[in-house]
Inverse folding.
C-alpha cells in the first residue's frame, strides 16, 4: 500500500514548529548584518518565505538549521546588494528637488535598467553601473571596456549627467 500523501495541514504544522524553534536564532543572525528594525523584519520574512517555498527540498536535509542560516546569508546578501543600488541612485539624484519628490521612492525601488534613457547607450549605462553602483575601481571599469582611465571617467560623468536630467523629467 502506498504511503499517504503529505497533507498541507501536516506541512503547515511542521513549518510552524520549525519557525518557532528557529526564529530567535535567525533574528540574531540577521541582526548582525542589518540594524534597521523594519528592514530586519522584512529580511526575516523573506527568509521564511524561501523556506516555505522550498520546504519539500530542504526537509531531506539533516541539518535544517544550517540550511536556514545559509538561506539567511543569501537573502541578506541580496538585500545588501539592493540597498547599495538604492544608495547609488540616491547619490545620482541628490538634487534636493528630486530627493524630495514623492516619486523618488518608486525610482529607488525599481529595476535600474528601466530608467536608462534613450540617449545613453547600453555600454555607457553598464559602465556607469559598474562604477557608481557596484563601486568598481575606474581602472577596472576602463580595462573591462578597453578604454583609457580618462575616457572612462568622461563617459561615466556624461552618463551621470544624462541620468540626472532624465530623472528630473520623470519625477
Amino acid at each position: 500500500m502506498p504511503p499517504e500523501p503529505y497533507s498541507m495541514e501536516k506541512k503547515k504544522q511542521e513549518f510552524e514548529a520549525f519557525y518557532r524553534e528557529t526564529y530567535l536564532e535567525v533574528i540574531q543572525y540577521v541582526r548582525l548584518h542589518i540594524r534597521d528594525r523594519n528592514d530586519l523584519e522584512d529580511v526575516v520574512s523573506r527568509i521564511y518565505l524561501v523556506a516555505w517555498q522550498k520546504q519539500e527540498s530542504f526537509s531531506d536535509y539533516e541539518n535544517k538549521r544550517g540550511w536556514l542560516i545559509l538561506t539567511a546569508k543569501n537573502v541578506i546578501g541580496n538585500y545588501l546588494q539592493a540597498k547599495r543600488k538604492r544608495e547609488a541612485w540616491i547619490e545620482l539624484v541628490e538634487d534636493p528637488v528630486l530627493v524630495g519628490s514623492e516619486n523618488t521612492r518608486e525610482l529607488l525601488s525599481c529595476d535600474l535598467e528601466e530608467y536608462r534613457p534613450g540617449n545613453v547607450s547600453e555600454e555607457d549605462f553598464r559602465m556607469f553601473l559598474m562604477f557608481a553602483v557596484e563601486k568598481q575601481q575606474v581602472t577596472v571599469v576602463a580595462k573591462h571596456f578597453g578604454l583609457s582611465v580618462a575616457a572612462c571617467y568622461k563617459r561615466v560623468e556624461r552618463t551621470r549627467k544624462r541620468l540626472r536630467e532624465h530623472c528630473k523629467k520623470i519625477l
Notes: The chain has nine helices and no strands. Residues 95-109 have pLDDT under 50 and may be disordered. The first helix runs from residue 8 to 31. The chain has two domains: 8-81, 93-170.
